[in-house]
Design the sequence.
């Protein structure tokens, strides 16, 4: 921010007279006799209450400047020394006066840095994610009870944990009380009662049901049912080490309206049997690009990847992917955790060739023509990869070919034969062992079918493609939601799991049922389709490459799921004690234990007295121990000691954090949640400060560090912009809802990787690798580089237009309008977030950059025209030069290989060409700014407040040490943790 030093008109005197010299008083003068007159003569006209150019008022500058004034004086001193102000076309101050003011400013700044700012401790409310994590850690509840809380406000730097922005509204306080009551009710159970547990299994496979339901079952919009004989429902009784009541589903129903087949009915019908309580269907089965989307085989149900629904007219299909296999259920528990166990395997599959692939040339290793029953046998002399071509008789129509080789089944379409020639096409590539193989073929059209088998060289292109296909594993995902005709409500349960080669095994998915969409309908609704929930099982889509099919043998549901009774949530509160029969003594033990864990430090005697008073009043009124505890427990959950991170101070001087305060601060920084038992044990022993290195290393390696990075990186880099930008699906069809979700994770996982592995910070600017899964890699045109499925891992890209955070699609697309790139947004983001040189706020009433005014001007020309308007040039001179190098990247965040002028002259006069040139400039000359920006933003997130001027200067000094680009990311994090900004209160 430049300050214009202009002599006020009424102080200039007449003619060519120079202004009178400032009187000296002592060495360097004083503020009153030297500095204040200088400001009045040279600054006040443009920087008083009336003008306040650049947001600066010199009439407020004082002899003892605060942090905000120190920032002004630092810039002003630099401009005085460099003689860049006043502007050349304004009267200049005498050199002696300039030197005196600059000297005074330097001494004042140095004195301010030397003195310690008043600290007075701090009180900072937990953010919504931190509060949610604290509840889960304390209570053991998986349910998210925080949906009713208002979102956290953001500070100027974009962080939601800044104490200055974290007000506690009446609405939020009321929500805390409601959440506390609900949480305690969920945790404490009647341990004398038997829980009711629902448990059923759906077995899948061709003709697996020996007594299929004779009724025509429901379809609904865009759905297809599995044949009744291809799934069987069995109610189970799980084995438990405690007594419980098995929940049996209702089987008799009477409905007035609904569907039979695809026909709407309006008449009363009675239904009986589990097939009307639990049934299996598939949605989105038409138009699958290659092969059958699902297929029942004797071993189970085969599923191909669930391709995301298409985008039509810019709107994503709400009916879910193709194909979407679901189990529809009329009754599921109202609350508690559930467990879905899927028995599945990676099918020993073959690679279907694209439709219309011509047959291979050369002699076949074997040829076979199945008999009328479709059966045949073929002898294979050598094991290996074989290609199978299929030929139908001349004039045969097209149709589906189902080919079974021993116990494996493959299906696909045959092309229509020409009237005068035999139709032949490449059909399948498969690995075969040596020996005789039984083959059975089924083709929907009349005529003979001939199969030719040819050995494939493993070093050939087709051989390598098949080997890559064999290495891939399907990813199993489970989703839960409710059924409706107008779209999908399914939400993923946990994380998808890779299904490796080998025999079928169980994959377990669990979650709290109340976190998933629930049908809210009145009891005994007479519509056949009302109130139905759905459990979806998918082979999750990765990047569109051919993938072995997922074989699902069974799906089992159990809920509420208890491994013991009473559950752990209950026992963690009502702890074991020999004084359980002494109500008051036992209440004291329970409340001491609970409050100590909630407060993240030992509860104080005076705090326990308050809680016991609450309990006594409730016990006297209710005469029931468990119910009387709820009021006191609710007081704990709504107390400042739980809802806030509190650092108590005895005075304004800086003090060391106590061990328990350090435990909380460190854990909420590096885990976004409360300290665990290991950290609290160190604090109790007074060893945490001495063990900081080891604790930081342990916490960075802990999975909870990913939660902290999700918050920090998202807020630092402003990824919320990507969440809300409306992408033009017509222009950018690959940026689907599912792809956005994967790309959104890339910056977070990238920064997390750099810190976990202590990589040099220069890789933040430019790296030889991406942290990507197969979906993200394919988006950047690197589909052949990754084989990790949905798991994020390092991938070398070999592309000068990739690497580092500046090229990541989630960031660049979020800094667009969804149709066109926006260099102004990108430049402002770069200045704020990457080099920590934020531009001035724009003056009021500045016109927007025209999007499409019919002038056919280039974006660069539009910017030039916009900057020429009064009030615009100053701001844009610090924004546009940083944004123009990003121009080759479109609104979807991908590089456009087209002739685009991406040259720019940076604010310091350096010329760069494109983003590669900008990266080179940063790596060579500006890495100290990158280090400082990272330290500034990380420290602001770590301490949960705005940094003082002195703290910022200490980070600036640290950023200039050594070779800045070689500084290591985790080392910088450790520097923040060991800084006074973090360790003092």
Sequence:
């Amino acid at each position: 921010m430049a300050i214009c030093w202009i002599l006020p008109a009424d102080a200039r005197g007449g003619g060519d007279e120079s202004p009178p010299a400032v009187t000296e008083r002592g060495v360097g003068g004083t503020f009153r006799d030297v500095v204040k007159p200088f400001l009045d003569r040279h600054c006040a006209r443009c920087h008083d209450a009336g003008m306040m150019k650049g947001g600066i008022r010199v009439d407020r500058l004082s002899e003892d400047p605060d942090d905000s004034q120190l920032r002004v004086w630092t810039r002003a001193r630099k401009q005085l020394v460099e003689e860049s102000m006043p502007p050349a076309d304004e009267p200049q101050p005498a050199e002696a006066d300039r030197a005196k003011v600059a000297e005074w400013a330097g001494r004042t700044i140095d004195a301010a840095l030397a003195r310690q700012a008043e600290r007075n401790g701090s009180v900072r409310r937990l953010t919504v994610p931190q509060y949610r994590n604290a509840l889960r850690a304390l209570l053991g509840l998986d349910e998210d009870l925080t949906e009713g809380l208002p979102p956290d406000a953001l500070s100027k730097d974009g962080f939601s944990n800044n104490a200055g922005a974290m007000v506690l509204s009446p609405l939020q306080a009321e929500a805390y009380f409601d959440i506390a009551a609900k949480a305690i009710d969920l945790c404490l159970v009647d341990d004398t009662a038997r829980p009711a547990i629902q448990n059923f299994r759906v077995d899948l496979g061709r003709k697996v049901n020996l007594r299929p339901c004779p009724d025509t079952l429901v379809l609904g919009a865009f759905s297809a049912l599995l044949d009744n004989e291809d799934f069987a429902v069995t109610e189970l009784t799980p084995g438990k080490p405690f007594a419980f009541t098995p929940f049996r589903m209702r089987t008799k129903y009477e409905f007035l309206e609904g569907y039979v087949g695809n026909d709407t009915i309006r008449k009363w019908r009675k239904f009986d049997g589990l097939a009307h309580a639990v049934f299996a269907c598939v949605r989105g089965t038409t138009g699958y690009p290659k092969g059958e989307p699902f297929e029942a085989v004797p071993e189970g149900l085969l599923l191909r990847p669930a391709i995301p629904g298409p985008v039509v007219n810019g709107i994503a299909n709400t009916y879910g992917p193709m194909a979407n296999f679901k189990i529809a259920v009329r009754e599921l528990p109202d609350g508690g955790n559930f467990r879905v166990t899927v028995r599945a395997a990676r099918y020993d599959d073959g690679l279907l060739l694209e439709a219309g692939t011509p047959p291979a040339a050369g002699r076949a290793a074997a040829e076979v023509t199945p008999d009328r029953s479709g059966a045949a046998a073929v002898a294979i002399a050598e094991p290996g990869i074989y290609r199978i071509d299929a030929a139908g008789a001349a004039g045969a129509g097209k149709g589906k070919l189902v080919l079974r080789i021993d116990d494996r089944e493959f299906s696909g379409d045959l092309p229509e034969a020409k009237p005068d020639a035999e139709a032949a096409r490449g059909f399948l590539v498969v690995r075969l062992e040596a020996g005789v193989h039984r083959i059975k073929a089924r083709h929907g059209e009349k005529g003979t079918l001939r199969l030719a088998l040819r050995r494939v060289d493993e070093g050939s292109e087709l051989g390598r493609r098949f080997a890559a296909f064999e290495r891939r594993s399907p990813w199993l995902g489970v989703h839960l939601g409710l059924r409706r005709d107008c779209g999908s409500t399914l939400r993923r349960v946990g994380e998808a799991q890779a299904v490796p080669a080998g025999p079928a095994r169980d994959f377990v998915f669990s979650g709290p049922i109340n976190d998933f969409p629930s049908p809210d309908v009145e009891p005994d609704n007479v519509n056949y389709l009302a109130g139905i929930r759905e459990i979806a099982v998918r082979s999750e889509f990765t990047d569109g490459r051919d993938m072995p099919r997922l074989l699902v043998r069974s799906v089992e549901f159990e809920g509420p799921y208890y491994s013991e009774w009473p559950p752990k949530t209950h026992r963690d509160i009502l702890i074991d004690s020999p004084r359980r029969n002494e109500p008051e003594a036992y209440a004291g033990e329970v409340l001491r234990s609970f409050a100590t864990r909630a407060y993240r430090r030992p509860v104080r005697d005076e705090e326990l007295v308050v809680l016991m008073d609450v309990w006594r009043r409730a016990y006297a009124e209710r005469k029931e121990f468990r119910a009387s505890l709820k009021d006191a427990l609710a007081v704990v959950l709504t107390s400042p000691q739980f809802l806030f991170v509190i650092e108590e101070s005895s005075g304004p001087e800086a003090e060391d954090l106590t061990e328990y305060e350090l435990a909380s601060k460190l854990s909420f920084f590096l885990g976004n949640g409360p300290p665990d038992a290991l950290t609290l044990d160190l604090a109790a022993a007074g060893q945490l400060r001495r063990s900081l290195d080891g604790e930081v290393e342990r916490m960075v390696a802990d999975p909870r560090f990913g939660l902290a990075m999700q918050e920090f990186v998202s807020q630092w880099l402003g990824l919320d912009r990507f969440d809300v930008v409306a992408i033009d699906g017509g222009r950018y069809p690959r940026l689907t809802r599912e792809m956005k979700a994967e790309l959104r994770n890339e910056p977070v996982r990238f920064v997390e990787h750099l810190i976990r592995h202590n990589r040099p910070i220069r890789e933040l600017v430019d790296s030889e690798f991406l942290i990507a899964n197969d979906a993200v890699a394919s988006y950047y045109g690197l589909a052949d580089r990754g084989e990790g499925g949905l798991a994020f891992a390092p991938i070398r890209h070999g592309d000068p237009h990739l690497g580092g955070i500046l090229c990541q699609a989630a960031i660049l697309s979020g800094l667009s309008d969804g149709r066109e790139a926006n260099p102004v947004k990108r430049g402002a983001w770069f200045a704020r977030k990457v080099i920590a040189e934020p531009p001035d706020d724009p003056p009021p009433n500045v016109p927007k950059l025209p999007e499409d005014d019919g002038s056919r001007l280039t974006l660069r020309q539009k910017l030039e025209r916009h900057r020429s308007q009064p009030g615009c040039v100053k701001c844009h001179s610090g924004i546009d030069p940083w944004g123009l190098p990003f121009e080759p990247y479109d609104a979807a965040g991908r590089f456009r290989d087209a002739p685009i002028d991406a040259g720019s002259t940076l604010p310091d006069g350096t010329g760069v060409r494109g983003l590669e040139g900008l990266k080179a400039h940063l790596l060579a000359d500006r890495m100290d700014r990158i280090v400082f920006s990272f330290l500034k933003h990380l420290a602001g997130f770590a301490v949960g407040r705005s940094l003082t001027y002195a703290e910022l200067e200490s980070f600036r000094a640290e950023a200039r040490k050594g070779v800045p680009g070689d500084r290591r990311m985790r080392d910088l994090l450790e520097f923040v943790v060991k800084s006074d900004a973090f360790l003092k209160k």
